[in-house]
Amino acid sequence: MKTIRIGCGAGFSGDRIEPAVELAERGALHYLGFECLAERTTALAQQARRRNPAVGFDPLLIARFKAVLPAAVKNRVRIITNMGAANPLGAAKAVAAIARDIGFANLKIAAVEGDDVLDHIAGSDLQLIERQGRVSDLAGRIVSANAYLGVGPIIEALAAGSDIVVTGRVSDPALFAAPLIHEFGLEMEDWDRLGQSMVIGHLLECSSQVTGGYFADPGYKNVANLARIGFPLADVREDGSAILTKVEGSGGEVSLRTCKEQLLYEVHDPAAYIQPDVVANFSTVSFEQVGPNRVAISGGSGQARTDTLKVTIGYLDSYVGEGQISYAGSGARARGQLALDIVEERLKLTGVPVEELRLDTIGVNAVHRGAAAGSDPEPAEVRIRVIGRTRSMTDAIRIGNEVESLWLSGPAGGGGATKSAREVIAAASTLLSRDVVKPRVSYEVV
Description:
Blueprint: E1 3-10, H1 18-26, E2 31-34, H2 41-51, H3 61-74, E3 78-81, H4 88-102, E4 108-113, H5 118-121, E5 128-129, E6 142-147, H6 152-159, E7 164-167, H7 174-184, H8 191-204, E8 232-237, E9 242-246, H9 256-264, E10 273-274, E11 279-281, E12 286-291, E13 294-298, E14 301-303, E15 308-328, H10 332-349, E16 356-362, E17 381-390, H11 393-404, H12 406-409, E18 415-433, E19 440-445
Parallel strand pairs: 1-2, 2-3, 3-7, 4-7
Antiparallel strand pairs: 1-8, 4-19, 5-18, 6-15, 8-9, 9-13, 10-11, 11-14, 12-13, 15-17, 15-18, 16-17
């Protein structure tokens, strides 16, 4: 029975590079996927591209490909990634330039575009999902609108002989399901087999989350050698079953407990996990520990895909100003609280129009809001944080300035003041008829 080995080289934009290189060098892979887009990442990339049309793809794309391409080419590992973000074609050209600089030839690089549906969204009155309101409520503030594409254009690129496929917004599991569907020749209406492919894709997509990352809790869930954590790989058979593991000698663990946590990660309904290509059913998945760091996966099914595609809309929500300063020694907590009181009153006296304000003593009440004063031992040091939401960058800057002024015009002994101001890009979602979305694939040849 044919077996395809596929690994995950990144689970988010800032993920580590070394484990991906290890997979390309020692993983004996057929495919290596890099999942690097979060909900707001594309909007931020669109903004970057407006400032400079040559960018708009993942900031670490060049570093990643310089590191991983030599081993991938040597070992004939095909790469699939959504690092194209807002500029897949620009990303493909950048990868081609890297390949030429290294001295590689006969590489075919595909760019998948068509997820940008801003022209269809702008001015529409589509209902938002997961929150109240309509797209029209965001008029004048929309930065981007990108539909979640499925496996189709990736399969097209692989069938055309592409060694590397660079996409924009696609569903996360599609990066890993597409090569399985391509290699096994699955029909696009074989819902159960498509559902099984999404199971594998979902388990792999977050890199080290399934090998012990974002999992360890000393004393409860101990994980060995996290500093050398390995990223996951799966041996997938034609019948949809698989063995999930990692490179021998790498840190972390692949176990029933890590697989169970990852299977349920970000899944609202395990029996109906809606993807562009299929509504997957994870409720019938079974795991079996078959060896050290080896988990057998079976089960999973699916139902017919929906008539719509999810669209993530990035929009300018507001501006945030922030300032921090530390106090240490006797009475640190009291001095920190006095500093917060001073800044709060000064913002009112100077008329800064703050829509939302947080006054935190980090280590006391910044995470668990409303902790009772005096309920814990007196801390030897505190750091206060003032953060507020405004409608203009000018007002956001004034918040940090007031915190910085505490150095001379606040309680004794303040130090290490910092300040910042930034615009806030938020995300909303809607549904768009899949007939409107037209993916396209172009190629760069080295």
